[in-house]
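Collaborator request log, item 7. Partner lab (contact: R.S.) asked for a structural prediction of F-box protein to inform their binding assays.
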Amino acid sequence: MSPSTNTPPHDTVKERGATAFSAVHPDILESHILARLDGPTLASASCASSTLHSLSDQDHLWSTICHSTWPSTSAPRLHSLVSTFPGSGPRSFFANCFPLSTPDPTTAADAAASTLSPPTQEIISAVDIHYKDKLIFTKVQETETVTGWFRCSPFRIDLLDPKDVIPTPAQHPNGDDTCTALNDDLTLSWILIDPQCKQAMNLSSYKPVSVQRHWLSGEVQVRFGSILAVGTKACTKGLVQVGIVVTCGGSEGGEMQVREVSLEVEDMDGMHLNGGESLVILQRALEGQRGNGGDRVEEGRRRYGR
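Returned to partner:
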């Protein structure tokens, strides 16, 4: 007998596969499959069928993903705020914060021509640093934006007080070779949130754009960042750079310690922008487009000119 006589038609196989999938109980799909996916994979799965779309849109799945991706989002105030984001709460938050912002001058010009939301009274920073996928630092910090001091002074957010030291499991680099390893081992997320307009974006390149060791002090500066488009005349080149610096020193035992985590906004010539200028630019970026969330590492480094 020919083997082909026992082979069902291709269409029949497809129908049986579809039937088998639809026969799986939704609770099993949700708890044993969907709950194990990361954000991009869950978003892709939701496009496969109407059943998966309905199951994948549940808030608790996306809350769990947000908390595992960015532990800072599990802080009580942030958890509550994320649930109120327009659209679908934590899923909308993830869609805003996982990809990089798009430094498109056209988008910035459109935002500049449109009416911006009223200036927010505060911005929230949600920051997470990992070393070899292990969390070593997480913090949520509010920054008031209504004072004259904020608007006129150079824009800078510091997450650590001068005497604060964050221990890490890493050995302090003692040369250029060990500094290079931090390019792959250290990751940082800096989510900026406008609680008034329920908008958020990630200002970090995810992995370092540069790692430098001071020849005299031995301190290591790990720089992350992003490039934003400008819709104002404050910067003639139409772009600004958001610089995030993690400064690390060594302990008596040789372990690396985080001593400074800061964020500043500069024009492309390295001139610091003040709080008022930076707030307008950041607000337009919050209302702008996002990337597709593909290769964030290479995209972040490419945009930063590395």
